[in-house]
Design brief:
- By secondary structure, the protein is α+β, with helices and mostly antiparallel strands.
- It has one domain (about 10-100).
- About 35% of the residues lie in helices and about 15% in strands.
- The strands form two sheets. Strands 1-3-2 form a three-stranded antiparallel β-sheet. Strands 4-5 form a two-stranded antiparallel ribbon.
- The mean pLDDT is about 75.
Amino acid sequence: MCHMNTASPNSFVRLPQVLKETGLSRATLYRKVQNGTFPKQSRIATRCVGWRRSALDQWLQNPLAAFGDNGAIAADGTRLGHYCSSRSLRRWAAMSLARPDPCSRSR
């Protein structure tokens, strides 16, 4: 298995980094949290929250399947999810179909 991130799976990721890694807007991220299609944040301190690295990595591996987003299906059979109109989801779908998995080995 290929690990793109070397941080501990128990570490926390703060909002700016989550937005940068996912390509989601702040509003879309919180909407997905509320709808259950993105991991919930954890309280780190009184006025501080973050996302577990392991949950974020799981979502990044497959944003559509990780948290039950199982809506529309593209012409090629790829599930697009309930937010198939969001720019970031369309971008992710196009990128994942256009290039091979960087972790797979050619033989």
